[in-house]
From TrEMBL:
Top-level taxon of the source organism: Archaea
Keywords from the named record: Transcription, Transcription regulation
Signal peptide range in chain numbering: none
Protein name: Helix-turn-helix domain-containing protein
The keyword Iron-sulfur is assigned to this record: no
């Protein structure tokens, strides 16, 4: 059966820490530029497993995790500009209720989930607005939900773009709109810097990081 598949873009704002107090310690540091949850699953015993990524200074991130992160067990996968964490942890009430929401309703999460600087978690949920609203209504936990956007779901495109930081997203969108990636090229770094009101070197840095992040996921 063909037809538009709908998505809803949600923000969750909990009254307590999401996974544990380590989150607050990590994201408050200037060495961290982005934190993403790629996948998390609830197990039968009420515990959960998670795969998340922290982007930034890997030495500082690793040190912060070793000092503050608490889990039943975890492993670190270190890359050039990020640290992946695979962990088995005990859930609190909020996490348990939110993960159950996806098991009990006709909705699925399109990862990654993204932490904001103000402690919320941005999530793309695939499913009708009506079913998402019903699922939210049945969550028995102290969480505030904000529905920021709905529309027709475009697979993969949204997931890739969400890997970028807000500044990288803004720079890439401006570059595309101004014709930087057209052939022949219709804009320079200087043009983009004027549009974004930033330094020319900042434009170059953001675009190089965008290209490295996105292209590495396109090539098998």
């Amino acid at each position: 059966m063909e037809g538009d598949v709908q998505y809803c873009y949600l923000e969750f704002q909990p009254d307590q820490e999401w996974f544990q107090p380590a989150h607050k310690q990590v994201v408050a540091k200037p060495a961290v530029t982005h934190e993403l949850i790629h996948q998390t699953n609830l197990l039968d015993d009420g515990t959960a497993v998670v795969l998340f990524e922290i982007v930034g200074d890997v030495d500082r991130i690793t040190a912060l995790l070793e000092e503050h992160f608490v889990a039943l067990k975890y492993q670190l996968i270190v890359r050039d500009d990020s640290v992946f964490v695979y962990a088995h942890f005990r859930t609190n009430e909020t996490i348990y209720e939110l993960l159950r929401m996806f098991d009990q309703h006709e909705i699925v999460m399109d990862p990654p989930m993204i932490y904001t600087e103000y402690g919320a978690l941005k999530v793309t949920v695939v499913g009708s607005k009506e079913i998402v609203a019903q699922a939210i209504e049945e969550v028995d936990a102290d969480v505030s939900f904000t529905l920021t956007r709905t529309g027709s779901y475009q697979p993969y495109q949204r997931s890739l773009f969400s890997l970028l930081t807000p500044k990288q997203q803004e720079t890439l969108k401006t570059a595309i709109e101004c014709g930087y990636y057209r052939d022949p090229r219709e804009a320079t770094y200087e043009d983009l810097a004027a549009e974004l009101d930033c330094a020319v070197g900042t434009v170059g840095e953001h675009l190089r990081k965008c290209e490295a992040k996105l292209l590495s996921r396109l090539v098998p």
